[in-house]
């Protein structure tokens, strides 16, 4: 049971702030940090389909933390402060910008349905789309020019969101290519903090589409959406590959640093 006020350990006195489809958030007494607890709950089609995926919270928290660290190494600021336990991370408080930024490298999902395009067609250059975060409106696709009308973001912020989304795409594509994973598309959320825009939320099989190179096997939440089975196995496989890739990067960096100048 999650109490309104945490009473034990490092986070004693932190208060419950918010519960979404995939996470619970607790606010620090100072209001500058949040403890994020990832849930095993699974939803699709804006909550119309619901279920549970065993250990999903642990998998998504770990993958998100590793990918956030990777992106920070390449100059993308994120809200992550540290991992604090299985399925939990400590993050900076940010003012979430109510725009979901979707980057598409291959056609699938709602894009294929909207435009009648076959699944798997390469998109070059990558397509960046904006969706207004509103459950009541079913998160509608919006033009960048709509952001100001909605009060969601200023024009210069929308430009920056697009730049950051493409930067994230470049870093992640290179990383996953080494793991024999195709990064099909993914959703990003950003927040404002101290005049900066930081990457927030998560990067996981919940928010990204991953296909195994060569086989096309789906290793993401589409297995839940489409009743493909082996959902837990797909999430665990992605965790295994991301951890192996992150370990390989650390080992490679250490090896390069050990030589003479």
From TrEMBL:
<dbReference type="InterPro" id="IPR033934">
    <property type="entry name" value="SAICAR_synt_PurC"/>
</dbReference>
<comment type="pathway">
    <text>Purine metabolism; IMP biosynthesis via de novo pathway; 5-amino-1-(5-phospho-D-ribosyl)imidazole-4-carboxamide from 5-amino-1-(5-phospho-D-ribosyl)imidazole-4-carboxylate: step 1/2.</text>
</comment>
<dbReference type="InterPro" id="IPR028923">
    <property type="entry name" value="SAICAR_synt/ADE2_N"/>
</dbReference>
<comment type="similarity">
    <text>Belongs to the SAICAR synthetase family.</text>
</comment>
<dbReference type="Pfam" id="PF01259">
    <property type="entry name" value="SAICAR_synt"/>
</dbReference>
<keyword id="KW-0547">Nucleotide-binding</keyword>
<protein>
    <recommendedName>
        <fullName>Phosphoribosylaminoimidazole-succinocarboxamide synthase</fullName>
        <ecNumber>6.3.2.6</ecNumber>
    </recommendedName>
</protein>
<feature type="domain" description="SAICAR synthetase/ADE2 N-terminal">
    <location>
        <begin position="17"/>
        <end position="241"/>
    </location>
</feature>
<dbReference type="GO" id="GO:0004639">
    <property type="term" value="F:phosphoribosylaminoimidazolesuccinocarboxamide synthase activity"/>
</dbReference>
<keyword id="KW-0436">Ligase</keyword>
<keyword id="KW-0658">Purine biosynthesis</keyword>
<keyword id="KW-0067">ATP-binding</keyword>
<dbReference type="InterPro" id="IPR050089">
    <property type="entry name" value="SAICAR_synthetase"/>
</dbReference>
<dbReference type="GO" id="GO:0006189">
    <property type="term" value="P:'de novo' IMP biosynthetic process"/>
</dbReference>
<dbReference type="GO" id="GO:0009236">
    <property type="term" value="P:cobalamin biosynthetic process"/>
</dbReference>
<dbReference type="InterPro" id="IPR018236">
    <property type="entry name" value="SAICAR_synthetase_CS"/>
</dbReference>
<dbReference type="GO" id="GO:0005524">
    <property type="term" value="F:ATP binding"/>
</dbReference>
<dbReference type="InterPro" id="IPR001636">
    <property type="entry name" value="SAICAR_synth"/>
</dbReference>
């Amino acid at each position: 049971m999650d109490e309104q006020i945490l009473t034990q350990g490092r986070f004693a006195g932190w208060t419950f702030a918010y519960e979404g489809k995939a996470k619970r958030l607790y606010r620090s007494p100072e209001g500058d940090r949040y403890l994020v607890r990832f849930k095993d709950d699974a939803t699709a089609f804006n909550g119309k389909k619901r279920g549970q995926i065993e250990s999903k919270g642990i998998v998504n928290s770990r993958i998100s933390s590793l990918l956030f660290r990777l992106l920070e190494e390449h100059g993308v600021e994120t809200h992550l402060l540290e991992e604090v336990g299985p399925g939990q991370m400590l993050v900076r408080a940010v003012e979430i910008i109510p725009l979901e930024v979707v980057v598409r490298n291959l056609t699938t999902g709602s894009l294929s349905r909207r435009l009648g395009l076959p699944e798997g067609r390469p998109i070059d250059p990558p397509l960046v789309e904006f969706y207004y975060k509103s459950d009541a409106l079913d998160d509608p696709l919006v033009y960048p020019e709509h952001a100001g009308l909605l009060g969601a973001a200023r024009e210069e912020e929308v430009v920056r969101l697009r730049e950051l989304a493409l930067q994230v795409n470049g870093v992640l594509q290179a990383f996953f290519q080494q793991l024999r994973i195709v990064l099909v598309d993914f959703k990003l959320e950003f927040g404002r903090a101290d005049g900066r825009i930081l990457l927030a939320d998560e990067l996981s099989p919940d928010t990204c589409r991953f296909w195994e190179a060569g086989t096309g096997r789906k290793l993401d939440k589409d297995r839940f959406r489409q009743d493909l089975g082996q959902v837990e196995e797909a999430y665990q496989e992605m965790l295994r590959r991301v951890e192996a890739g992150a370990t390989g990067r650390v080992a490679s960096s250490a090896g390069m640093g050990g030589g003479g100048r």
